[in-house]
Amino acid sequence: MxxxxxxxxxxxxxxxxxxxxxLAASLASVNGNIVDLWSAWRxxxxxxxxxPQPYVRWQRAVDLVAATLLLIPGLPIIGLLVLLVRxxxxxxxxxxxxxxxxxxxxxxxxxxxxxxxxxxxxxGAVWAQKNDPRTTFVGKVLRKLHLDEFPQLFNxxxxxxxxxxxxxxxxxxxxxxxxxxxxxxNRLAVRPGVTGLAQVNLDxxxxxxxxxxxxxxxxxxxxxxxxxxxxxxxxxxLIHLLGIxxxxxxxxxxxxxxxxxxxxxxxxxxxxxxxxxxxxxxxVLAPETAAGGNGKASSNGKLLNAFTVDVEDYYQVSAxxxxxxxxxxxxxxxxVESNTRRLLALLDRHEVTATFFILxxxxxxxxxLVREIHEAGHEIGxxxxxxxxxxxxxxxxxxxxxxxxxxVLTDIISDDVVAYRAPTFSITNRSLWALDILxxxxxxxxxxxxxxxHDRYGIPGAQLGVHTIDxxxxxxxxxxxxxxxxxxxxxxVGGGGYFRLFPLGWTIRRLKGINRKRQQPFVFYIHPxxxxxxxxxxxxxxxxSQFRHRVGLASTERKLxxxxxxxxxxxxxDVIQKAGLxxxxxxxxxxxxxxxxxxxx
Length: 601
Fold this sequence. Notes:
Layout: H1 9-44, H2 55-88, E1 94-100, E2 106-112, H3 137-145, H4 152-158, E3 162-164, H5 174-180, E4 193-195, H6 197-201, H7 208-224, H8 227-241, H9 246-252, H10 259-266, E5 304-311, H11 336-349, E6 355-358, H12 360-365, H13 367-375, E7 379-382, H14 395-413, E8 419-420, H15 433-440, E9 445-446, E10 467-471, E11 474-478, E12 483-486, E13 489-492, H16 496-501, H17 504-516, E14 523-526, H18 543-550, H19 556-566, E15 568-570, H20 572-578, H21 583-600
Parallel strand pairs: 3-4, 5-6, 5-14, 5-15, 6-7, 8-9, 9-11
Antiparallel strand pairs: 1-2, 10-11, 12-13
């Protein structure tokens, strides 16, 4: 809450501390996403992994000495450049941005600001362009002379970067680049550099082709980097800063490379959208006795997996609830109908029926859409009414929300609703009491427990695969989203932001592992807003929330098309029935056994 009068010194310190804490939390969360991507790829692509030279182990000592020496004349230059930027354009002189470093760890990278402060307000993260209109006049000069990189010497001192190495990429782009270029993640084996072999030979990335060209040189550095190469790269960069052409300086230093020939020899020039190399070994769980462990499959040998959709609109995501009050939902232009129909058309093309967990608030305002989903043969489940996290409600509030959502849905489709999924998978160890209320209210299926570790949800030790949970009020069939096992770790591969973040080829192999190695069906989930890259940018103080919400939106529909063509999908109720866990069937069998016993007596 804002104070009515201007804050004093203490108030400013508190605000600064809160901002610092929030940024630290944001950075930690994004770090986890990219580290998961790197670790998973590293664990399964041993043949494709490029091991760095031993030199990188003691490169840190060289970096500390060199960065300190460069900062002695560099500090006054940085001060003058910051002043020049502040005098010629609105906004701060120093700009910081999250970048991906060694082993997938992210960090704040510092630069002299060269763009307008609102450069990406309407577009989100995009690559730089030649003659970029977002760049200020002073920024163009600084970029041409590479003076905007001077503050990265502080990153070198902190250990985030080296003087020489691959250019650090933004986390928004890494997942899609890793999907399109399998060897791309090899760049993360070393610290990124202020300058590098690729930087002195080639212009900044503007498209996928330029990324492939630079990757060839980055991989050469990872494999053959040395103190001699570092010295020559730094010297070439400094010579270029003095106004001598880059072409001449790199030839003097023996750094010129025929990238075209190198590209052909590696085969990277022939890659389009390809899957990463098949792993030599995969760590998986032994087959479980839970649902699917019996390996029941169709005549074509494919297990039936569950395709589920959480029907909510883009502004109802939990990450934005601190900025968008529920009483304001009606003020937003709805996009849920058009996006859901895109999913319906996609499922229809592949002759797939699914389970739609529909938010009660959405159902009340889009009854025709709910009927359309039901009439197409899809299963209708409840996603609650107000999209409130379970552990932030009391049992009384949860029961009220549950009843309200179910009443709306059953009134529209004139059929019973027995399946439930909590908003943001918010049945955790703090809210397991919700399962008993679900059973008491007549729900027999739940898909709210995510067996992973996450800052907002998850029970890391929860059972994998479809299984039953007994509560005081009855039995619930629990259907957790898919996770892949790596030793003791569970890695989410079942949909949503993880589906958008991780490379498609890698995700497909993990899901195939669940079907083939564990002999289990998996549960996949998606939201209608995830096929809508044109949705409005939502306001949020958290960079993490923006990243999680928008990463990979442009490729989601294409990925879904591929996924639906590979796996066999159906409704949750069908998967449960094939697994022999149909609650209604169990009740009928128990009643029949009871009657037979009475007759025998």
